[in-house]
Specification:
It is found in: Membrane. This is Zinc metalloprotease. Pfam families: PDZ_6, Peptidase_M50. The protein is an alpha+beta fold. The protein is built from twelve helices and 18 strands. The protein folds into three domains: 163 residues, no CATH class; 81 residues, Pdz3 Domain; 85 residues, Pdz3 Domain (Roll). A four-stranded antiparallel β-sheet has the order 5-4-6-7. Strands 10-9-13-14 form a four-stranded antiparallel β-sheet. Strand 9 and strand 10 form a beta hairpin. The protein is elongated, with a radius of gyration of 26 Å.
Length: 453
């Protein structure tokens, strides 16, 4: 129930903000708005505003719309022609269309800023064992290293308050095709040294789980088994939630990162390799043999025991001043928009998997998880979803705001509007593309929930 309510509340807010953007700019441009609707289908609630706009809440909450007076939709009384959308100057029509995504973008900035200002408990920038072959391992990072500052040039340094600051700096450097300098101490703050993380090598890569694994920055966490999937390879080996891994194949298990890396590499191509585990359970030491299941992940074979490893890492409370929070809100929203566009582009040309597309089931699951985690995680979820909605609506596809902006761009360049015949044909193509995207996203949701991805 929490998941459903959190998801519906998120949808209602983001749709309302989006349509409010269209509505307010339309009214500012002198366009008469006939209906402002949250949802589609059967009307559950209706109220008429002082300006004559009908405000409605409908049964199907997966969208909304603002219906404006327009001569293309029917007859318009002569005294109201000046209030018709199609009679307004091109710049005003374009502004009305762009106002919806702009409203979602501003909301994302405000929510990211609110999270930064309110503060939250986040993992400390103390790192676990980096995966073999990762950038972190090549840079010389070790389990227990504490990243204190980062620099693009090795001269001007920016303090790192917690792991999210480090991850944001790494993603920004990777996105820009630059390397990143790290100022590191041990977990107690002693023995300062500088390292160079060669993020430039991964320039152009999509921001997915494989990218972050190849970078290799994860918080230090004790090698405690949190979860064992029923019927999985770990359960078959006799592992139980609460077990603490002491050693793998005779090597001491320093932290959860070490355990995960050994399990991932426990195979020879498609053939799994058996692992010897020493675990502590209720004060007793137990020896077990486990054979991982070999699966394909982002085009690579990896071993999986189908267990969750890692005790909660050490956390610190981080908050920012109001001006810094606004700056961070803008920066985070911009970085996310840029990453989303790049990922969509890479999926379009086949350089990134279409499995990255998520649909309503995944969004609802994240809504429930973030709502249970607290106010700050839920606000951050709303910010991410609002930014995604803004970017999606700006795609140059008919049926979306971006498609209508392309019509206006054509009109501005050619001096004539797109013909109704062409608009009808393009609308059909756009609807087909959107339906295919929705079907793919929903199938990805089902596959994730079923454990097929």
């Amino acid at each position: 129930m929490t998941t459903l309510l959190a998801f519906l509340a998120a949808l209602a807010l983001l749709i309302a903000i989006h349509e409010w953007g269209h509505y307010r700019v339309a009214r500012a441009c002198g366009v008469k708005v006939l209906r402002f609707s949250i949802g589609f289908g059967h009307v559950l609630w209706r109220r008429v505003g002082r300006d004559g706009t009908e405000f409605t809440l409908s049964a199907l909450p997966l969208g909304g719309y603002v219906r404006m007076l327009d001569e293309r939709d029917g007859l318009v009384a002569p005294h109201e022609r000046a209030q018709a959308f199609n009679q307004r100057p091109l710049r005003q029509r374009a502004a009305i269309v762009a106002a919806g995504p702009a409203a979602n973008w501003l909301l994302a900035i405000a929510l990211f800023a609110a999270v930064a200002w309110l503060g939250s408990e986040v993992p400390k920038a103390v790192l676990g064992t980096p995966p073999a072959g990762s950038l972190a391992e090549r840079a010389g990072l070790r389990a227990g290293d504490w990243v204190r500052a980062v620099s693009a040039d090795g001269q001007q340094w920016q303090d790192v308050q917690a792991l999210p600051d480090l991850q944001a700096a790494v993603v920004q450097a990777q996105t820009q095709g630059e390397s990143l300098h790290l100022s590191v101490t041990d977990a107690a703050g002693h023995g300062s040294r500088s390292l160079r993380l060669e993020t430039a090598r991964l320039a152009g890569r999509a921001p997915d789980a494989q990218l972050f694994h190849d970078i290799g920055l994860a918080p230090l966490a004790a090698p405690l088994i949190r979860q064992v999937v029923a019927g999985g390879a770990g359960a078959a080996a006799g592992l139980q939630a609460g077990d603490r891994v002491l050693a793998l194949d005779g090597q001491p298990a320093s932290d959860a990162g070490f355990v995960r890396d050994v399990i991932r590499r426990a195979h020879d191509g498609t053939t799994p390799r058996s692992l010897s585990l020493r675990v502590e359970r209720d004060g007793r030491v137990i020896e077990l043999q486990a054979t991982p299941r070999v699966v394909e992940d982002a085009g690579r074979s990896i071993g999986r025991l189908e267990i969750g490893v890692g005790a909660p890492p050490e956390r610190v409370f981080v908050s920012h001043g109001l001006l810094d929070s606004l700056s961070l809100g803008f920066q985070r929203s911009w970085d996310m928009a840029a990453m989303t566009v790049r990922l969509l582009g890479r999926m379009l040309v086949g350089e990134a998997s279409l499995k990255h597309l998520s649909g309503p089931l995944t969004m609802a699951d994240y809504a429930g998880q973030s709502a249970k985690a607290g106010l700050a995680p839920y606000l951050e979820y709303l910010a991410l979803l609002s930014m995604s909605l803004a970017v999606l609506n700006l795609l140059p596809l008919p049926m979306l705001d971006g498609g209508h902006l392309m019509y206006h761009l054509f009109e501005g360049l050619s001096g004539r509007p797109v013909s109704e015949r062409w608009q009808q044909q393009l609308q059909r193509v756009g609807l087909l593309i959107l339906m295919l995207m929705m079907a793919l996203a929903l199938s990805n949701d089902v596959a994730r929930l079923a454990g097929w991805h």
